[in-house]
Amino acid sequence: MTDLAAKVEAFLAEHPPAGADPIEFLRARFDAGLAWVHFPVGAGGLGAPRAAQFAVDEAFAAAGAPEAVPAAKVIGYGMAAPTILTFGTPEQHERFLRPLFTGEEVWCQLFSEPGAGSDLATLATRAVRDGDDWVVDGQKVWTSFAHAARWAILVARTDPTVPKHQGLSYFICDMNDAGVQVRPLRQITGEAEFNEVFLNAVRVPDAHRLGAVGEGWKVAQTTLMNERVAIGAHAAPREGGLIGVAARTWREHPELRTPGLHDRLLRLWVQAEALRLTSERLRQGLAVGQPGPEGSAAKLAFATINQAVSGFEVELQGEQGLAYEDWTMRRPLETDWASRDPGFRYLRTKGNSIEGGTSEILRNIIAERVLGLPREPRSDADVAWKDLPR
Amino acid sequence: MSELLYSEVENDLRASVRDLLSDRSPWTAVLARTETDQPYDLALWRTLATELGLAGLLVPEELGGAGASAREVAVVLEELGRAVAPVPFLGSAVLATSALLAAGDAELLPELAAGNRTATLGVTYTTAPNAVFPASVHVHNGRLTGRIGSVVDLDVAEFVVVPAVGAAGPELHVVEVSSARVTPVVPLDLTRRISHLELDGVSGRLLATGDAAEQALRSALTTGAGLLAAEQLGLAQWCLDSTVDYAKTRYQFGRQIGSFQAIKHRLADLWAATSSALATSRAAASALATGEDVGVSVAVAAAYCSDVAVLAAEEALQLHGGIGMTWEHPVHLYLGRAKSSQLALGSPERHRAALATLIDLPA
Ligand SMILES: Cc1cc2nc3c(=O)[nH]c(=O)nc-3n(C[C@H](O)[C@H](O)[C@H](O)COP(=O)(O)OP(=O)(O)OC[C@H]3O[C@@H](n4cnc5c(N)ncnc54)[C@H](O)[C@@H]3O)c2cc1C
Question: What DSSP line would sit under A117-145, residue for residue?
Fold first, then answer.
């Protein structure tokens, strides 16, 4: 048994999961350094290699240990935590990481704007210094789970007179501020998982800035690389993804089978397994530092397979594929795809190739940063943001 | 060689349908209607059926129709697909009408042609033309009992043409929908409704028996599959056109997104696929009009256009980015229609299998 496995075992002996208060349990897990073992001691980790986290998570899951609410994980675990860790001050680590891990505080991501999606660096939300605070005005869009969030990671423009990448800064924004208005934005599934967020003279203390003034783009890159790894390189057992749902339907419904669908299913299965192994290999190779552009490839492949499998699933259903479970507008607190109908999965996975960087942008990243191919010509990189054509 | 271009008459017909639809059925109206208790626009349907006389295109003049052919119907369907118009044209003017025509009906057809009545065909919407004759409804002493799942356009139909099995085999009956139980299904395609039909000792009017019944059903399904391809074509064209427009007007990185080769090539490929869809759809419509090469032409169009429509809707969504994922944007109406239509009247796999026999490429 490894040291780490022994630590987990000792922790579980001391804190039996059965009947435990989830928050107390998760606090203790954080304090024991078993939240994210690759984080430093005192910040929820033990300074272990990143790859070790998988086994730890598995051991806790196998013991039936309590977990944070699902909405806490998507953005909090995958994006906010690694960014806070990398760029935050000790005070910020102390204040934010523990309640983030326990799910007491849910996070959202205030990056995209109506005019700035793929081209995030052109964003127009302004932050103006006022004493010890920044005053933020602007509009964000597609903000997943903003309706549940206590805090947001926010990128805003602090200097419009320099080229677009240079005038950005990165903040932690209090979603309870009176100037924050969250409006649901309904999705093609019928639900409103994402929102429009209007920021009207929102005050953000300078103590809630992450990274230096003007360094926001670099900090945001860390968030995005982690997001893509979190989406694309998450650990999964064989048949763990949507392919498992399709395979189950196939096994349980012989009447739906046709030769053409059989061949397609097997092709998809091979593709899913190849991607699973690629993700596994990526994860094993991740050292303590930050994930690189290879994570983009994993996220790209994740979107592709999800869409292919869910499209297949609708066709496999035959007559039942004509139906949809429920178009009711709600504001969900998680995306639990496996329990939904194939039509929902078909529609929801369409977002996989858009959220967290579109598949086209990810291909550009692979081409330019992994393969070293020349960039497309750019006219806007050296122009002051305020002088860009709009 | 079949005529693959549009005639002047067909172009005029298209223009009048497009005008009406852009006036009366813009996507905003289609979307707004989806969650009301009137998902179909029956006023629009009446205008199409009576003022434009489109319900009776396939019906001969002596029965009160226009005596036109599948070619003209295809043009109408292209426009209906382009607008994802919520009208029961496919169920009534194509499927039920074709079955009644093939069965030699002279009673209901004039009513349908005049737009006084609406009907549909009582088969599960996924049924392929080469499927075995359905046996879920039985006839005893002239009364029909049984269940047919997922019948298209049944919600607003007054009559349904029901395939049933009697003592001597296949029969085709006309049944009044008011005498049956209709259970609406929540549909993936918000613009086209399906419902389950239950018959409990209902009386029907016998249309055809034996081979004639089988042939009438097969003919209706073949016509339906061949003409659904035209609707899929129109849908794909809308997706292509609106995405090209968007690529010209959406700026990122200081450029129109359509200036990126990654996007250009995708749209060029989609244009090529849509052009081929047009050719196959025209060939199927011509074949249905002349009766020549029907089997192969319909199978090719159905297999090809089904997939192109789905591709076009998926590409449209992707190339619109986040806005394409929102309810308040029309692309999801097209995506739901495209994906459902891919299952309808025979999946592409079913049509390829039918083709395999026809062109002697056995498994
Ligand atoms: C379900 C969902 C959840 C989301 N959640 C969040 C969230 O929580 N927080 C947040 O900040 N954002 C969120 N987003 C927003 C997401 O990050 C953006 O939608 C995405 O970055 C694309 O931006 P856009 O929508 O403006 O599309 P655009 O950037 O306008 O892109 C339109 C099309 O052009 C293509 N394109 C753009 N530039 C290029 C190029 N250089 N080369 C080739 N093709 C190009 C794109 O790939 C796309 O196909 C979410 C989006 C979705 C769909």
Answer: SSSGGG---EEEEETTEEEEEEEE-S-TT
